[in-house]
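new request in #modeling-help
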Amino acid sequence: MSGDVVWVLEILSGPDALRKVRETFDDIWQAHRAVPASIRTEIDIASGEIAANIIEHAVVDRPVQIRMECLVLAHLVEVRFTDDGCELDVNLESVRLPDEMQGRGRGLAVARAVLGSLSYQRDGGQNRWTLVSEGFSG
Amino acid sequence: MADRHIDSLSALRELAGFSGGDYCEMPGTCPVGVVVFGINSEDDVMEFRVEKNPSGVVVVFPRGVLDASVAPEFRGELLALASDGNKQIVVNLSGVEIIDSSGLGALIDGLKAMRKNGGDLRIADLNDQVAAIVDLTKLGGILRLVDGPGSVGE
């Protein structure tokens, strides 16, 4: 993503973090009207789920610093979340929808289902999520 | 029928039993009781309206974004409606622009509470985004859709 980052949001985990993520994507889609509605919806859904996951699970005894980068190219949208919260025990290959009567545990399955690819890495004391939706020509 | 803004959620819970009828313009004849209230989680505000029709069906109308920032409070209100002895809740989602897995989880927890009390919770009036999430998560089988808005007589 080096040299191509066009949108960056830096926030602290907190009650208004999800709203700021949503508002940033509202701005992004306003600026990139060629991105199909289906891709926008996929990114909106998946970004919300990943951001909520970061806020819920990466909590330590201080606010977590979250950085979101979004790259819009002619054929794909890539979003990268980085946070300095706790390391997560995540195996995306094993993520499945829970039993239908479970009230929790669907977020990663939803994000994985709607995206072209979703990855998680722990690197340099930070969690790194990369979301990609592709398959269009803008 | 009169709308009334309620400042506290505890006051709403009391009114949601609709026992007093003091919010109706004509107590005893008003067909549908309505309360309007909001959940304020810092800057995120979710407003929703609750109706109870003469046949006892409670219809909840959330508005805006039903995500992780407001889902805990929304879940709490559904559980309160269930514990009040209501047997049928319809959540009309026509005013919900976006729902995420946390919002769905709140609906599932509300459904479980209703079933535990011998009741049921159903959903109505989904927009495309909400319908897509319900379909994606394969919850359409238990969060059954009511035809129409879920209002009086439905």
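bot summary: Chain B has four helices and eight strands.
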